[in-house]
Amino acid sequence: MAASGNASPPQPHFLNGLQPEQSSPPDGVMDKFRLYETRANFYLIGRNKSRTYWRVLKIDGMEPSELNVREDSTTYTASECSDLLKRIHEGNRSTGGLKLVTTCYGIVGFIKFLGPYYMVLITKRKQIGDICGHTIYAISKSEIIPLLSSSVQSKMANYKSECRYKKLMCMVDLTKDFFFSYSYHIMRSLQKNMCDNETGQVPYDTMFVWNEFLTRGIRNIICNTFWTVALVYGFFKQSSISISGRYFKLALIARRSRHYAGMRYLKRGVNEKGRVANDVETEQIVVEDAVEGFPMQISSVVQNRGSIPLFWSQETSRLNIKPDITLSKRDQTYKATRLHFENLSKRYGNPIIILNLIKTHEKKPRESVLRTEFANAIESINNDLSEEHRLKFLHWDLHKH
Asked: Transmembrane residues, as ranges (predicted)?
């Protein structure tokens, strides 16, 4: 902490040339930020909810082809942070001084196309629920900030192509189907959070963090996750219910994997790494409102769905609403299918129960082709597993029930 009284104000490490040390904020969470800029640099000021400390992140705006980020390891008070900003302003007065760009609530990530890096920020948020006292948020508004002055952008090569790629990026609507939390690992199930008891940095490497790649650069540079938010893509809805005089909170969460994701018909089956198309983990959490002094009653049920883990595809056509299924025979030993179920076993444990919803009988064989091959794959895999680890295969034709 910086000294108080008549002592000299703390010197930020990026101003005095020292390499910043890695130190954690006192309570580990910053949830509100202000972005400032000078002619040469950007300064992101973050603070915690209780306003007891402030931190500073400096981003180089003069080198567009590289992501140069430096974190000041000093923890500031409100007055010390204000003094620092005044000194930065005075030091840059001849070139326009220090200007406020925006207030924000976390970094979604950094992205680069043909020109400079862009910083994606959450500029408005809304509370959509809470889990065990941890607030869950959705994004109300986001903003893409180029880390380069507009005058330089218009003169750079490939300017038209750069604008096109930026427009494509802006088509991703972060205000729909994305959610996050500063203090709860919403990308993991309640059971995993309670059993693992892991502390420290947010697990961005999980398959359910949509912006893992966008945040990888800054996380590798500053070696922490205090400035970024881990976004989950899917669905979150929480409601309060009453049954026989007892009050509950019911939350339904769907987490969509960032691996092998894509639109219907364009992504099908499994890839060589055992990742299936459109893999979604669904969790239902029920919490009973506890009377003070009594333990909390809580229940969580998790299930997983995904494309059938075989190599297959469908050719889309406007004239054919039910395109034919093409089954590839290139994986005779079902290696990719095995990898898929090994991954499920690591994530959820054994036994793995497979609920197969493919049709049994069809006038023209389509889904039933997959049904037969899937059954063959499970039989082949089970032949190499012990009784306790074998896959439980249940057929359920919805058209018969």
From this structure: none
Using DSSP's 3-state secondary structure scheme, residue 114 falls into: coil
pTM for the full predicted model? 0.86
**Strand, helix or coil at 163?**
helix
User: Quick one: CA dihedral 67, 73, 74, 76, positive or negative?
Assistant: positive
Beta carbons of 137 and 143 less than 8 angstroms apart: no
Q: Is 195 left (phi over 0), alpha (psi -120 to 50) or beta?
A: alpha
Sequential pLDDT tens for the chain (401 residues): 333 334 444 545 444 333 333 444 445 689 999 999 999 999 999 999 999 999 999 999 888 778 999 999 999 999 999 999 999 999 999 999 999 999 999 999 999 998 889 999 999 999 999 998 899 999 999 999 999 855 455 566 788 898 899 999 999 999 999 999 999 999 999 999 988 766 667 888 899 999 999 999 999 999 999 999 999 999 999 999 999 988 999 999 999 999 998 777 678 899 999 999 999 999 999 999 877 777 788 999 999 999 999 998 887 766 667 778 888 877 789 999 999 999 999 999 988 999 988 877 777 777 778 888 999 999 999 999 999 999 999 887 766 66
Give residues with Cβ within 8 angstroms of 305, minimum separation 6: 279, 280, 282
The partner residues of 288 in beta bridges, in order of sequence, read 248, 297
Task: Give one word for 177, left, alpha or beta, with left for phi > 0 and alpha for psi -120 to 50.
Answer: left
The pair of structure tokens assigned to 75 is: 């923890």
Separation between Cα atoms, residue 94 and residue 341, nearest integer Å = 63
Tokens of 5: 């009284």
